[in-house]
Amino acid sequence: MKNYATIVLANQEISPSIFRMRILAPGFAAAAQPGQFVMLRPALALPTMLRRPFGVFRTGCLPPECDGLPPREYMEILYKVVGQGTKILSELHQGDRIELLGPLGRGFDLGPPGQEKILVGGGIGLVPLFMLGEALVAQGSRVRLLMGGRTRDDILAVTEFERSGVETYVSTDDGSLGEAGFVTKVLERKLSKYPQAEVFACGPTPMLTAVAAICAARQVNLQVSLEAHMACGVGACLGCVVKGAGHSESTPRYLCTCKAGPVFQASDLDWGKATAEAAINCGGGCK
Amino acid sequence: MKNYATIVLANQEISPSIFRMRILAPGFAAAAQPGQFVMLRPALALPTMLRRPFGVFRTGCLPPECDGLPPREYMEILYKVVGQGTKILSELHQGDRIELLGPLGRGFDLGPPGQEKILVGGGIGLVPLFMLGEALVAQGSRVRLLMGGRTRDDILAVTEFERSGVETYVSTDDGSLGEAGFVTKVLERKLSKYPQAEVFACGPTPMLTAVAAICAARQVNLQVSLEAHMACGVGACLGCVVKGAGHSESTPRYLCTCKAGPVFQASDLDWGKATAEAAINCGGGCK
Amino acid sequence: MNSIRPSLAVEVAGLKLKNPVMPASGTFGYGEEYAPYLDLNRLGAIVTKGLSRNPKAGNPTPRIAETTSGMLNAIGLQNVGIDAFIAGKVPYYRGLQTPVIANFFGNTLEEYGEVARKLNDVPEVTAVELNISCPNVKQGGIVFGTEASAASQVVTLVRQALNKPLIVKLTPNVTDITVIARAVEEAGADAISCINTITGMAIDVRTRKPKIANRTGGLSGPAIRPVAVRMTHQVVQAVKIPVIGIGGITCAEDALEFLIVGAKAVQVGTANFIDPQAMLAIIAGLEQFLVAEGLSDINQVIGSLKI
Amino acid sequence: MNSIRPSLAVEVAGLKLKNPVMPASGTFGYGEEYAPYLDLNRLGAIVTKGLSRNPKAGNPTPRIAETTSGMLNAIGLQNVGIDAFIAGKVPYYRGLQTPVIANFFGNTLEEYGEVARKLNDVPEVTAVELNISCPNVKQGGIVFGTEASAASQVVTLVRQALNKPLIVKLTPNVTDITVIARAVEEAGADAISCINTITGMAIDVRTRKPKIANRTGGLSGPAIRPVAVRMTHQVVQAVKIPVIGIGGITCAEDALEFLIVGAKAVQVGTANFIDPQAMLAIIAGLEQFLVAEGLSDINQVIGSLKI
Ligand SMILES: Cc1cc2nc3c(=O)[nH]c(=O)nc-3n(C[C@H](O)[C@H](O)[C@H](O)COP(=O)(O)OP(=O)(O)OC[C@H]3O[C@@H](n4cnc5c(N)ncnc54)[C@H](O)[C@@H]3O)c2cc1C
Ligand SMILES: Cc1cc2nc3c(=O)[nH]c(=O)nc-3n(C[C@H](O)[C@H](O)[C@H](O)COP(=O)(O)OP(=O)(O)OC[C@H]3O[C@@H](n4cnc5c(N)ncnc54)[C@H](O)[C@@H]3O)c2cc1C
Ligand SMILES: Cc1cc2nc3c(=O)[nH]c(=O)nc-3n(C[C@H](O)[C@H](O)[C@H](O)COP(=O)(O)O)c2cc1C
Ligand SMILES: Cc1cc2nc3c(=O)[nH]c(=O)nc-3n(C[C@H](O)[C@H](O)[C@H](O)COP(=O)(O)O)c2cc1C
Ligand code: FES
Ligand code: FES
User: Residue A123 has what DSSP assignment?
Assistant: First the structure.
């Protein structure tokens, strides 16, 4: 007897509910005697149970000419494999079933049309900025997108952003694409040039904290999109709270990221040490 | 916001560890605002954890001419979808990973060559009889296989059995294939003709119990292959025991199906009411 | 096949429920949160988030973590407080055709009594569920729910203060749940619900920190179902008042395990997060089961365990 | 990167183990059953199936049932008895370079004492693990393990009878595991292992029968891990003697959760059924973790919890 980690060669239904499976098994035949048996299990990890939250990247529609079917609306996410849940997602194929709840939460407030808009996105934090950019451009605002990342691999969908009519500025920590250095450096420069701009940011907590400090110092309006561990996504479990402005031990003020957010006015949040810690730590870099 | 049970349209790695997934979502675009999010989960049931036991149906080898690869040995199982574990197996595709432990257990004792051999198989109980038939034929014995089932759908792999050189006799409870009635009726007839035959049986408990009664009455030697709930398959957990002959409350005698079996001499087992109950009840018919 | 639809109606502590399926406290907000996903009138009842005399902010974050087939939570019983509940949430219940069960807890006996008295004057609340079992709050449930005499004391007090049916919810973190069950029955509970979460812990091996800020949290979800079925069975055997089974229910078959061992109704918790429409699927599945088994009434299944 | 292999060696109750990974009693037979799949000398130790004075036939079948991410078992402590163990199984241990820990239980105090004395004369058995926590056998462990004075009594007696290191294995089916832990420490235990299985139940909804002939069984596997980590943490805080963590460990990361909260070693149970080579993967994974974290010794991880 041997312990094989092997593959399925075929698996066919030969009669109603009766299948015949062929499994690669070198050396098996020589050992097997009539009447023996095997113990089998598909090499699946125990999967995750709860849903996972993802920003809406964009929506679209497959025209009928694609495959002769009626037009079909779709939505897209962009995600990074960081744990078991996203690993399982990454192994799904076309036609696999998926359960989706949404759109959820409070999105961005576009603000007055025509105003200068600066979007700051780090790594996977670029996701919610695509639809925002489109909407702001449609509204008639001038949109500058500062894309940051640790390396060039974190700079996502540049062409798509550019095609949507936003001006893109790329910086990476290691200089492997665009300017070398933190995206906050670019932000300072842009804000010196456009002091009336409104800022929208999404990315890892250290980046958001730095952006919030810069905007507060310059009294520039800032909206941020946050991440938090979520179970329900609809305001029922109270698992996803962040500390609001004015939060203290004696007068705690918790806000649901899923319902009051994920987009907040930076001024509504508590940017103290505690918030930065409580928010998800993505290791300082951009996921 | 809506709760979609939908499908994946595409899922592509666009940068190291970063994927872009497109999901069918009618009506989503009209509702989605920049910065909102979704809660996602692949529509997988929580899978089973333990391995499942299956008889070895046959082994073989893919010759190099199939696909230009070196010859590859395989083994085959035949299984019926009865619960979550077999459901998950049935959804595996070519190339999917699987973990296999085996061959395990004690197989059939072929007995003296040249002797008449009668094989009795009900439904999925036919599985272990294929390699047995081959071995008995190779040994020079005359082999008659009595295939039973509730309906024609339970009669599996007839052509393959016939090609292996065994004589097949088919009966179904509803008469949808072969003779109408229980396979035990055919067995009685054959044993009247060949009273010296040795019998080998595998199938649902009621069938095995009836076969055991017939063979005992005629003092014919019988080997049976049993099923039991198993966790380890190697004699370590003691979850798979059956009552041995002479078992009683005061002198319990439990045998491991995985190690002392799954094939037993019928005379080594306790065929009382209790064994029939303890063995897995497959609803009276053939799985 | 019978064309008459089988009956799912059950009676628990004097409440007539159209079916035995209701949400578990703390997993369904105040009900309104899930209204976009399911018609609340199709549920057997609605159970609110746990309420207390004063608003409670709850625990620091992270408050939740997934474990294998389960989740840990240490929300810390965050709630708006009984007054804000009555003023802000109760009006929504007026239009509903489903009984509302208010879950509540206190940090002291006085608080329990006060909240009970306030709920007397709220006709929209049909019954109350007393949480003496919360494992998260240090001065909270754990003290009352793990000790028979303390459990008896709080139930006696609330029974005296309250003019509505009283359901008492038990904690599984005890050596012998039947001792507590008998104590709360004697103290005047009209029904028992069990179980609350089992205390657990998970560690982030890279940071070496607990995955939950509160260090420990309550384990819920399919992982705990076998423990919940066992305790429900034990409690049903130990008391005469009706029992509501809770713990890891995700589908009709799961709910049936509890009903078969004798629970008169079930609550669905974590499964609401996995699928906001889970309770509707469970109700439909119970009906299908009755049809498939040729039964006309869910009460034929309740307590049908063969041992 | 450091090219010196990090050390996995730990010391528990005077036993020097080459690594902190060993099988949990009852999930690895007497060791020999798994010898075709892994080199037993690579394990930290071997722990035998639970032994008793007389051979035990165990419970009727079905004895096992799978639940979500867990399994119920009611084997009923089937074993060959201490004499047959010494005569038939012990000789196999002679060639091994791994310490053997004999797990045993009794139905009476006298039986516990008798088995302990018999093990004194078996040099192949390095240490013993006392099961005072089996939830399956009515006259068995449960009586001793859920009550501090009874636990103390049996440990005192075995301590006096035994001339080897004594590990006491605790049941999780208690209100406060630290009370029992302190009692067995005071009574002379050299180490504590925790946890044994949590009592659970599962129902076949079609037959209306329990899935296990014994009605209830012990829940093990990944489902119980958060409860086991919590209890291991509590026990580590409560006693000074070393603690061995058990419950739902399937991979190195799972094992690390227990080590980080302070367990000096871990036992792997149900995972052996899922993958007979699981323990080897866990040992390799622990080594990889140390390398990745730039650590040279597993003892730098043990008790490294940040709270
Ligand atoms: C509103 C919102 C929008 C998001 N948008 C995106 C996006 O567009 N693309 C993308 O790649 N990621 C996004 N995230 C983060 C994403 O949800 C996590 O990366 C993901 O849940 C990790 O799951 P896992 O099982 O792979 O990781 P694990 O670490 O194994 O997850 C364990 C648990 O922690 C939670 N968790 C871990 N990391 C995060 C995190 N950063 N945020 C929230 N929960 C977390 C998981 O949900 C799960 O419950 C978003 C999060 C939020 C809250
Ligand atoms: C030695 C042996 C050989 C077998 N050979 C075959 C075969 O060739 N083809 C085939 O289709 N089936 C065979 N079986 C039965 C097969 O193992 C079960 O049908 C299968 O385990 C059911 O798993 P499930 O998750 O789909 O069912 P579920 O009912 O969901 O399983 C729940 C639990 O019960 C156990 N279980 C349920 N039914 C059986 C059963 N009949 N026997 C053993 N355990 C069971 C499962 O292993 C699992 O632990 C064999 C069983 C044994 C012991
Ligand atoms: C996020 C969350 C919050 C909870 N809040 C409460 C509460 O406020 N009051 C209460 O009695 N139980 C509370 N519970 C316990 C549930 O009501 C239920 O007893 C438990 O989750 C087990 O059921 P499940 O496995 O179906 O989730 C909470 C559970 C969860 C997961
Ligand atoms: C089939 C089986 C048999 C067991 N037999 C024993 C035993 O004889 N003695 C004992 O102390 N524990 C016994 N246990 C408990 C395990 O040693 C362990 O404490 C428990 O399974 C939790 O670990 P796990 O989740 O890794 O399986 C048994 C567990 C299983 C699953
Ligand atoms: S995720 Fe449940 S309240 Fe926000
Ligand atoms: S299946 Fe474990 S001993 Fe037979």
Answer: G
